Amino acid sequence: KKQQAPVLVNLASNEYFKAVKPKLLEGRLLNINFKETKDGKTRVVAIFAKRARGMMADYIIRNRIENPEDIKKFRLGGYRFDRKLSDETQWTFERAQP
């Protein structure tokens, strides 16, 4: 069985991730974004995104997720994976803004 390349799931804020040199990383980098939709507009709300990153880190650890595709099942806080706002390296989870 062929071993898959490692995947680094980036849940850091943009500010912290600036300290990382992605070209030095081995494997695939998967950036996770959290967005809120209100009045037909979708945007990042920093405080909500920070909470959501923590919820997702907890979800990945508690569920012992090894296959990145299983991250798409994340449903905490009202967030859902949004295929339209995502691509191979940027996965976006969206919800209605509370």
Task: Break the fold down into its secondary structure elements and pairings.
Elements: E1 7-10, H1 14-17, E2 28-38, E3 41-43, H2 46-62, E4 80-81, E5 90-96
Parallel strand pairs: 1-2, 2-5
Antiparallel strand pairs: 2-3, 4-5
Q: Could you please describe the fold and organization of this structure?
A:
The structure is a single chain. The chain has 98 residues and is an alpha/beta fold. The protein has one domain. Helix content is 21%, strand content 28%. The chain contains 2 helices and 5 strands, in the order E-H-E-E-H-E-E. It has helices at residues 14-17, 46-62; strands at 7-10, 28-38, 41-43, 80-81, 90-96. Strand 2 (28-38) and strand 3 (41-43) form a beta hairpin. The longest helix is centred in the middle third of the chain and has 17 residues, at 46-62. It starts with 6 loop residues before the first strand and ends with a strand.
